[in-house]
Design brief:
This protein is of the alpha/beta class. The protein contains six helices and four strands.
């Protein structure tokens, strides 16, 4: 009897726990991270610890202001399941910045594929001819 093997998202991507109290910020970060992680979003530290207990995780993202983030890291380092997980600290408002950056990167990639943008023109501005030749002495 041959068993059919079905791949799940967890088989393909590492699991990321994302603590983001803001629903808008959580959704933006989840969308930005979903291409590389299976993202489990939680609103508070206790929910994050419960998620870590129920599902083996590979990384933790904290979208918190500085003081609560430091307290969260201290608590995570005390827990057996999260003590050695990498923790990425995101500053408050990072979700908006990251989502904006992802869209810009996608736009640049599409423009390059279509031949609308040449290498070195990622900012959308063309180099001035006077500066292009003066870089070498």
């Amino acid at each position: 009897m041959a068993r059919r093997f079905e791949r799940t998202l967890a088989d393909e991507y590492p699991v990321a726990l994302l603590l983001a109290p803001s629903q808008r910020g959580a959704e933006l970060l989840r969308l930005a991270l979903r291409t590389q992680y299976e993202v489990i979003v939680v609103p508070d530290l206790e929910s994050l610890l419960a998620a870590a207990r129920s599902r083996p995780s590979d990384i933790v993202f904290l979208d918190l202001p500085a003081a609560p983030a430091v307290a969260a890291v201290s608590r995570l380092r005390l827990e057996k399941l999260t003590a050695f997980l990498p923790i990425v600290l995101l500053w408050e408002g990072a979700a908006d910045h990251l989502a904006e950056r992802v869209r810009q990167d996608r736009l640049v990639a599409v423009a390059r594929r279509q031949g609308l943008l040449k290498l070195g023109e990622a900012s959308g501005r063309k180099r001035s001819p006077s500066r292009a030749g003066s870089a070498r002495a």
